[in-house]
Amino acid sequence: MGEISIRRAAASDFDFFYSIKCDADNIYWSGHTSPPSRENLVGFFSSGIQNPDIHTKRTIFIVEEQPNNNRVGYLYFDPVKGGSAEISIAIMQEFSGRGYGRQAVRTLCDMAFGLGFNKITAMVREDNLRSQRMFRHAGFETTGLFTFQFIDNLNKEVKMLEFKKVRQV
Ligand SMILES: CC(C)(COP(=O)(O)OP(=O)(O)OC[C@H]1O[C@@H](n2cnc3c(N)ncnc32)[C@H](O)[C@@H]1OP(=O)(O)O)[C@@H](O)C(=O)NCCC(=O)NCCS
What we know:
The protein has helices at about 15-20, 25-30, 40-50, 100-115, 130-135, and strands spanning about 5-10, 60-65, 70-80, 85-90, 120-125, 140-150, 155-165. The chain is α+β, with helices and mostly antiparallel strands. Coenzyme A binds near residues 90, 91, 97 and 101.
């Protein structure tokens, strides 16, 4: 299994971010039917990279394959109240299944726990078995809580399962 590292996203990562957003896998599991508009993503990406304090609002991270710093994915880190944060991840289709997702999630959780967060959650579609497997490999478990989200490309609501990982003391 190769090694990965994570770092905060920078303005120069936008083209990569947009390309992964156009990945067929990413489009499908985001519930869309077509690639996003580049213009719409620019503002969203900019606000995710201009946040000086991870405790206050969304921070976007880039996942890089080592030792070459080859960009393979991104992570969102969204702080919520009470020392918790919610995360989301995508790994490029061609690099999927190499254990990069679980390594990236583990690395981000360790970093967040080191910064004082005590609980990390993720909402995962009930039908996204690959993502569920990846989160379990990264030390997450289901909480039993769920929501429903309307998924455009299925034209129906899908159950979103809450997964969590807590800081070990
Ligand atoms: C979900 C995602 C982040 C996983 O990243 P990854 O680097 O492939 O994850 P890992 O390699 O660490 O683990 C994937 C696991 O799922 C398994 N898997 C692959 N395809 C699968 C499938 N169709 N059904 C069930 N498990 C599957 C892999 O075999 C692996 O498990 P194993 O090591 O026990 O064999 C990545 O595939 C992705 O970005 N998908 C599109 C966007 C997405 O779904 N994001 C998650 C939103 S919650």
